[in-house]
Amino acid sequence: MIQAGYPLDMRYAGPREALLHALFRQNYGCSHLIVGRDHAGVGDYYGPFDAQKIFDEIPKGSLETVNMNIDWTFWCNKCGGIASQRTCPHTKEDRILLSGTKVRSMLSEGQDLPVEFSRPEVAKVLQKYYAGLSAEQNVKIELKGHSAA
How many other CB atoms are found less than 10 A from the CB of residue 53? Predict the structure, then answer.
């Protein structure tokens, strides 16, 4: 069964929320949960793969839902599509890597997204939405720690 969404607001509770997502999806009849980088995380509070590691800490058989861990994903110009560090042998110069935070920031600032990342007509709808948000609702990125260097 494939489930594209379910009626639950994000809580940004990191690893424990990943377990909650797995349980909810299990209750909907899903057999697997894709757990990506920084799943349900917020800022730098959790490590980028902590939500994947928590599945190793619970007793085997606790959940019927199986986690599918995905590492960094990106557009690879040489592969001609979306890839991950596990599936793509090419260098970072061949990749377009955008985080959800970066995408929201670009949209908030009215910047165009790369065509490899989003169809232009979809990006325009999102830009219009973000343009209608107040300053408090818009995304602000502050680089801290290693990211600021």
Answer: 14
